[in-house]
Write a structure and sequence with these properties.
8-stranded antiparallel β-barrel; 11 strands
């Protein structure tokens, strides 16, 4: 079963510790991709996600510009954050997905827990999935502010996907 990510009903929220004091929240407003998934045989499926780095929204245009600079995403050379699965395992209706995360010109294999949220019908069949996981930004060459304890190294990402079957 082929599914498309519905970009109008999918999103990515991130949080990072600022000044070791509080969690700072931001979003990526462009989440696209495709998923091949048969719920009765998820191990045969695949997930491909594309998040546009320029869609970062930290509620401050100057900071968004800094996030696009070589200190962080180096957005001109790396316009997308991508995830390509290499293995999917079922855990009931939930999934454990392993794949290659590419960000800021670096690649890392990660395994993430993916919760099945629900299924419905609205202009076609729909399924929902959500994951929350953390990555070390230093693994992707983004060390700005880590030593000074201005910005944490761990970035927590929540990705919510609404999948729709293409017509």
């Amino acid at each position: 079963h082929d599914w498309a990510v519905d970009p109008g009903h999918s999103g990515c929220v991130f949080r990072i510790k600022h000044a070791n004091a509080s969690w700072f929240l931001g979003t990526f407003d462009s989440v696209k991709g495709k998923v091949t998934l048969d719920p009765s045989a998820p191990e045969k499926g695949s997930v491909e996600l594309i998040i546009a780095t320029e869609s970062v929204d930290s509620n401050d245009k100057q900071r968004d510009g800094h996030l696009m600079s070589p200190d962080f995403f180096n957005g001109k050379e790396n316009p997308d954050i991508t995830f390509q699965s290499t293995k999917i395992q079922a855990n009931g209706k939930d999934l454990e997905v392993t794949g290659k995360l590419s960000m800021a010109g670096k690649n890392k294999t990660i395994t993430i827990p993916v919760a099945f949220v629900g299924e419905g019908e609205f202009r076609g069949a729909r399924r929902g999935y959500m994951t929350t996981f953390a990555v070390k930004r230093s693994d992707f060459g983004m060390t700005y502010g880590v030593k000074q304890n201005v910005l944490g190294d761990d970035v927590h990402l929540t990705v919510s996907l609404e999948l729709v079957q293409p017509k």
